[in-house]
Amino acid sequence: EALLSRLASQEPGVAAARCALDTALCDLRARHAGVPVAMLLGGDATRVVPVNAVVGARATEAAVATARSAVDRGFRCVKLKVGVEESLEAEVERVDAVREAIGPTVKLRLDANGAWSVGAAVEVLRRLEPYGIELVEQPVAAQDLAGMARVRRETDIPIAADEAVAGVDRARRVVEAGAADVLVVKPMVAGGPRPAAEIVALARAAGLTAFVTSTVDAGIGVAAALHVAAVLPETAPACGLATGSLLVADLVAPSLVVRNGAMALPPGSGLGVTLDEEQMAAYGDEWQEVA
What we know:
Helix content: 40-55%
Structural class: alpha/beta
Shape: globular
Number of strands: 11
Strand content: 5-15%
């Protein structure tokens, strides 16, 4: 705890270090108590967490194929990367094609990663309103809270703050600025499971919603994020935790798998996972020295 308090900066590398320490501390305390980390955070360890598929292919044809495959594998929410086309017309055509591919009942959310200006965001989101968009993550630059608030006022698609939610203090600023309907909570960016759970509580107290995502973490990070997701209400949007397939290995046992668009918390006390020594051994002598 003393070391965590000294790591007060919200710089990305420091936040990741805080997350590692906080995750280890939560795991140790929960194992000592014989309970899952989710219980220490006030969550339901029996939860099965709905997760979204990510469609990041640049070419629309490839995006359509990826989205259709995700639905075939049981995902009920698809996140499409936008802000990648040269014109607003092409952006609309990209969304139209993916919506056509996944049908009207699968949830479709967008992620612009701050790519649009405020004016462009307002224009394109107004044109996308007929497509039943669940939400759009970070339509404008993370530091432009006034711009986010304007986009929120002038469009009907819910606005999710992602990169703007870099820690509890910055999450609070988003709420105070009226800049978002939804907070995207990343334990690695927030500084660990406990600060992440604090952001979830902050959102709920403000009448907003939240969901949890990874930063394409290995298995320990995803397991920690799953335990944070257990504090969300049942009605929360799908979480962005189905990222294991983007990695060569998740480095934990048991592996964290997606079944029919959802992930269960691993059983047992603590995080419910341990480092898989066979997987770790494939990465050289450094692991053996640490072990």
